[in-house]
Amino acid sequence: MLQIHQKIKSVCLTSLRLPAVMIVLCLIVLLSLPFINIFHPSKIESIDKIDQNTQCIDITVKKITYAGYDLVGVAGKQYGYYYSLDHGKCTFFLIPVSENPKKTLTDYRLKAKVIEYDSAFDEMAESFAKDLNWDKDSMLQVTKPFIVSNEAYHPFFYMFLFWIILIVFLINAKRFIQSIVEYFSPTLYPVCSFLGKSVQQEILTEAQEELSEGTYIQINDMYITENYFVDFGKKSVSVIPLRDIIWCYRLGNFPLNPFNQNHNYSINFMIRNGSILSIANKTSDEALELINAIRATEYDIIIGHSDAKKKLAKKRCE
Description:
Layout: H1 4-15, H2 17-32, H3 35-39, E1 42-44, E2 56-72, E3 78-86, E4 89-96, E5 104-115, H4 119-131, H5 136-141, E6 143-149, H6 155-184, H7 197-213, E7 217-219, E8 222-224, E9 228-232, E10 237-241, E11 245-253, E12 264-271, E13 276-282, H8 284-295, E14 302-303, H9 307-316
Parallel strand pairs: 1-2, 4-6, 11-14
Antiparallel strand pairs: 2-3, 2-5, 3-4, 5-6, 7-8, 8-9, 9-10, 11-12, 12-13
Helix pairs in contact: 1-6, 2-6
């Protein structure tokens, strides 16, 4: 015997999968990326406390000297290479500069990300070593193996990314919890999204009784009982009282897959409050057969799509 509650539970179990996967992915990303360190960089008192394992820092350097080379960063912003000598070691910094960079900066505070050498730095180091009548390899032997880069520090990007991930997480968490609740309480599942919960419970009971009596028309997973249209879709369950339907028509839809040349159809119902309910992914034969079955009921429902029928349906809306 057909059981609406069991079908709802089956749909709820299916609908749990995608939110569960998205929740796990969001948690992995949130835990993998250094959001806390980016939003609250480690306060470093002196350069010699920085090493390759350091991520983002907030530091005030006593003195740094302009190396004479610039880099154009994101959105055309200009950065300059500066260096500091401390205990016989050279540390390079990449910081924002104007058109005329200052030769020396003292007590300069910056927030930055500690990064490995990149191709831009290699080119700069090659030229800078020549300026010093030195070779690059010898210079790098007394240079710390990282760059303190403000150009690579993007808190606003990570803030944007954090909120996107958080929103996606919350949306999917809500869907996951909603599916769990509806699985254990099928009467809360929105089979009639335009009706209240109390009315919906009554409708589910009546529709189940009519299905149990066996006096219905079946079109694959769709059923027309004496007073209800019931659709057991793969992703949703719909129960619509025939008395609330004003207009019924089908629409052909082109598939999103460009290699699939088959049309699929949606069956659309305008109900008394003027809203449209759509039952998608039906074949042409299914849609035609259902519309003919609805036409044969005792209810006065406008069948078929045209401008004249659309105007007539709107006049009947409450």
